Amino acid sequence: MTDPKPDLSSKDPDWWRQAVVYQVYPRSFADADGDGLGDLGGVTERLGHLAALGVDALWLSPFYPSELADGGYDVADHRDVDPRLGTLDDFDAMAAEAHRLGLKVIVDLVPNHTSHRHPWFREALAAGPGSAARDRYVFRDGRGDAGELPPTDWQSVFGGSAWRRVPDGQWYLHLFTPEQPDLNWDHDEVRADFRTTLRFWSDRGVDGFRVDVAHALVKDLAEPLRDLGDPEASHESALLTLPPGTHPFYDRDEVHAIYRDWRTVFDSYTPPRTAVAEAWVPGARRALYARPDELGQAFNFEYLQAGWDATDLRAVITESLETARTAGASATWVLSNHDVVRHASRLTLPPGTDPGAWLLSGGTAPPVDPEAGLRRARAATLLMLALPGSSYLYQGEELGLPEVADLPPEALQDPVWEQTGRTSKGRDGCRVPLPWTPDGPSYGFGAGGAWLPQPAWFARYAVAAQDGAEGSTLELYRAALKLRRKLLQGETLTWAPDAPDGVLHFTRSDGWRCVTNLSRSPVRLPPGEALLSSAPLTEDGGLAPDTTVWLA
Q: What pLDDT score does 419 carry?
């Protein structure tokens, strides 16, 4: 690197408060070397697409050395690049090009666990019970006459026990796959190592961090470890029933000391590095992670989980804005990411549909109308981009990509498939490599094939097929993001008191308005110039169902 500490002091330190951030899942974005796996070279080659789209930053999902037991979130070295994806020099070149194009760079930080191939874990296995090396992780003796039972009844997010036994008889904790042993965040060496990691990437010019499962780092490891009594209590949903801060491994009050410590690292740079928490916790608890002296921002998953219903969405938007205001943060909005069914499919599923069951049916029970789904997705996106705060986009949503729900079982890579006894297909359907051109062996993803099979219908969604095409979803995103830069001021909105049933109508601080029709009938628009709409207005100038319009 020519400049280990790029001077970003001329940039707005509060850029993140109203930013549009584009999530890149590197293995599925673009493949520069033709091996079928996306890489950093591919990201660099396609950064012009993000600049033309009009986003403010890209967030890179993990690109670290990994055996891909969990899509890259099983990290063997938090301060290096997976050789299949490139080198640290490739990362530096990508970051430099992003900054040249005016794009900020956010990287994924995975602090809850390592890969079982991490040097620390290999050392722990070799060192044996009672060793200092094992104390960096959560090792315990088992229960039963011969220690043959797991230490507790805690369950993995991906199914089955959260404990795995090693040959010497002890068990280690893994809240995710067995290949992802949980770190012991009570250990000073663990905390010090991650401070080093934060500085390592910040020194390379990284502008911010997305913190994976930020709510799970600290566990109640006081002996005896306590059972939960109900396997379902191992899931985040239990946070709604247990007293706040008391779950043995989720959202414990002690976790916030870690993030206050990290804030001192962030603030030692000019401008300060930013962070956003992935914390699946209730709104009032989420605000704690977003405080200015901690991470500063947290993902709002209530918005993602809300149905296509005006009453529900208004309540979620109102509560989310209030939660962010209480924390001194800005709100965050997201419709899709690497872990959920793409919203072009999800938003058209009938209320009460289990997305997992729908995926198991190959997307046929119930059948989904892709045109209706795209119409809702476009309306939902225009609504989201009008809201105060930061919007996080997931790669491919600017193309209107639906979920690839019919991936054959033999193609599935997500560990959820095997760990649930093949009862959940997992997240591969939203991770299928992107189509850049309407033809070629992988629709322009790379010179060869793709690590997950792409359906033939991807051709019509390709970037090249939509580039410059009037009315295309790609052009809608470009127009919306360009207009958003001109319109977006302040961090408040005012709900219209006279909106018809099924309609969301609000005014932003400088007077422009957003109207979304979630009802089944066209509605009359209030006076004003239509600046942009997700679908054509009716012949008499009304707003059709499943349509959003921005009004001057």
A: 81
| 8 Å CB contact between 61 and 29 | no
Spatial separation of the C-alpha atoms in residues 301 and 280, rounded to whole Å = 7
pLDDT at 2 over 60: no
User: Which member of 39, 182, 207, 278 is catalytic?
Assistant: 278
Q: Considering 31, 108, 212, 414, which one is annotated as catalytic? A: 212
How does residue 248 score in pLDDT terms, banded at 50, 70 and 90? very high
Q: In this structure, what token pair is assigned to residue 303?
A: 């918005």
Q: Look at residue 476 and tell me whether its pLDDT is greater than 60.
A: yes
Distance CA 342, CA 289 (A): 26
pLDDT above 60 (res 10): no
Name every residue whose Cβ is closer than 8 Å to that of residue 244 and which is 6 or more positions away in sequence.
251, 284, 285
| 3-class DSSP state of 240 | helix
> How crowded is residue 366: how many other Cβ atoms within 10 Å of its Cβ?
12
Q: Tokens 């200015």 label which residue?
A: 292
The pLDDT assigned to 3 comes to: 42
Residue recorded with tokens 């640290």: 88
232 annotated active-site = no
pLDDT in tens, 111-142: 999 999 999 999 999 999 999 999 999 999 99
Q: Which two tokens mark 180?
A: 């992802």
DSSP H/E element including 256: helix 255-266
* Res. 145: pLDDT tops 50: yes
Task: Give backbone dihedrals phi and psi of 459, rounded to 5 degrees, phi first.
Answer: -55, -40
Token reading at 276: 């956003």
Angle made by CA atoms 411, 413, 418, in degrees to the nearest 5 = 100
Residues in Cβ contact with 379 at an 8 Å cutoff, skipping those fewer than 6 apart: 516, 517, 518, 534, 535, 546, 547, 548
Which residues have C-beta within 8 Å of that of residue 215, sequence separation ≥ 6? 236, 250, 251, 255, 277, 279, 280, 281, 289
- Strands of the 171-173 sheet, one edge to the other: 139-140, 171-173, 163-165
CA distances from 474 to 52, 370, 390, 478, 481 (A): 10, 16, 20, 6, 11
Tell me the backbone φ, ψ of residue 76, rounded to 5 degrees: -90, -20
For residues 276 and 298, is the Cβ–Cβ distance under 8 A? Answer: yes
pLDDT in tens, 429-466: 999 999 999 999 999 999 999 999 999 999 999 999 99
Tens digit of each residue's pLDDT (9 = 90 or more) over 79-110: 999 999 999 999 999 999 999 999 999 999 99
H/E stretch holding 378: helix 370-386
Q: Is the pLDDT reported for residue 4 higher than 80?
A: no
How distant, in Å, are the alpha carbons of 155, 178, 266, 472, 523 from that of 175?
A: 7, 8, 28, 42, 49
DSSP bridge partners of 474: none
Task: Count CB atoms within 10 A of the CB of residue 304.
Answer: 19
Per-residue b or e along 227-255, where b marks 16 or more CB atoms closer than 10 Å to that residue's CB: ebeeeebbebeebeeeeeeebbbbbbeeb
135 is catalytic: no
Mean pLDDT of the chain: 94
The phi, psi pair for 506, rounded to 5°, reads: -140, 160
